[in-house]
Every structure is written in C-alpha cells, then in structure tokens.
Amino acid sequence: MGKIILKTQREIELMRESGRIVSAALRLLEGFIKPGVTTKELDVIADDFISSEGGIPIFKGYTKGGKGRFPASICTSVDDVVVHGIPSSHRRLQEGEIVSLDVGVIKNGYVADGAWTFAVGSISPEKERLMRITQEALFVGIEKAIAYKQLHDISSAVQQYVENNGYSVVRDLVGHGVGRTLHEDPPVPNFGKQGEGPKMHVGMTIAIEPMVNSGSPKVYTDGDGWSVRTEDGLPSAHFEHTVAITNGQPDILTL
C-alpha cells in the first residue's frame, strides 16, 4: 500500500461540491429508469448534466491495469453485472431488472464517487431485499468510519451484515481512497477482521462500496474487458458513498 493522502477542510469542501454533482446526477437518472430505456440514453443524460454543473465525468477514458479506456461517462450494471457495465444503445432496460448506476465526477481538481442500485419497473421481493440489505450494509460500514479506529472495522461490519442476511460480498473488488484522483490508497475491502488494517485519521477520504451477490461471491470479467459479472448468473447490487473521516461523525460527501 502506498501513502494515504489526508485532505484539508478546504479540500474536503471541494470534494463535497463534486459529491453534490454525483448525488444530483443519480437523483436525476432515477427519474428516467423505466422499461425500454437504453443504458446509453442514461449515459448521455448523465454526461450532459455533469458538464452543465461544471464537472467532468472521470470514468470517461479511464484506464487501469492495462485495460483499454472506459468508453462512457457512467457505469450501468444490470442484474448479474456487479460493476463496470458499459452503457450501450443496444441494451434496453426490462421490467423486473435492477441496474446499478456508478457516477464519478472531478471538479476543481477533486473527485467524488457514488453508486446506487435502482429497480426497473416492478421487481421481485428477492431483488428488493437484495437492494435493501446492500444499502443498509453501506450505512453499517459508514458508521465505523471513525478517526483513530482501524479501517477493517468498516470491512468487518459490512461482511457480517451481508452474510448474516444470507448474501455474499464480492472479494475480487474493493472500495478505495478517493480525492485528487479516482483511486487512491487505502483499499477498502468489504470483508476483513475488526481491529485490522491501517488506522483511520482525520482528513482521510474513502469510497465505501458494498458489492453484494445473491449467491456465490465469485465473479469474472466479461469479454468487453470491463463488465464484472457474477459467476453463477444471479443478481448483484451495489451502493457507494464518498466519506470523509472527521473528529466526530463520518461526513458523507455524496448525500
């Protein structure tokens, strides 16, 4: 692990402005999610909105680990796609599906990152419960983002909550530090032991993001080089907030 970059209050406020755009984009997109809409249409709406707010969609053109450049402004991950789904003009949302929208924005040199999972029309009680438990797990984790405690207190809390409710956390993907760039140290796994990991300090800014599978935790990367899918083909949900560690309660920058 490299150096963890602590942020000043001024830097956190710049991140909060990026976070405002992230959450506003997600709220805007929620109103367009219905059967028949293409994931590319959602991408265009997000791109236009982010630009209108003076931000830049940081996912567009992003590259990591020798992959090609990500070709869109947001990630649209449907049903068994856990994360990093590429928007497409050929992929229409269908009644009963769930779709995770992941939005990252940079403005004034600082990044915020957030994701919500949405229902497409009427969904099954099983998918409703998966979404609810995943979102609750995010807030269970955020509650543990406390200065001078250990980072894996977050990881342990998320894992226990998810597994106690009969689901599994993806282990091949983790949350991350965020701020001047999209991915900073430290990694923030969704599994681990309480009391382990680096100590959290005031000014740390992290993206906490439970990725929760209905069945097995095993995943694979699709032929497009980006889309991560569940190995068993069962649905997955994903919720994410960017959080600053303070002297008191965790400060959610993407509310």
Describe the protein in words.
The protein has one domain: Creatine Amidinohydrolase (Alpha-Beta Complex). It has 4 helices and 15 strands. The chain has helices at residues 9-30, 39-52, 125-142, 152-164; strands spanning 56-57, 74-78, 81-83, 98-107, 110-119, 168-169, 175-177, 184-188, 205-208, 211-213, 219-221, 228-230, 236-238, 241-244, 251-252. The strands form 4 sheets. A 5-stranded antiparallel β-sheet has the order 8-7-9-14-15. Strands 1, 2, 4 and 5 form a 4-stranded antiparallel β-sheet that branches. Helix 1 packs across helix 2.
Biggest sheet architecture: 5 strands, antiparallel
Helices and strands: which structural class?
Answer: alpha+beta
- Beta-strand segment tally: 15
Given the structure, what is the number of helices?
4
Placed side by side, the strands forming the largest sheet appear as: 8-7-9-14-15
Mean pLDDT: 97
CATH topology: Creatine Amidinohydrolase
Helix content range of the residues, please?
A: 25-40%
Spans with pLDDT under 50 lasting ≥5 residues? none
Q: Rg from C-alpha positions?
A: 17 Å
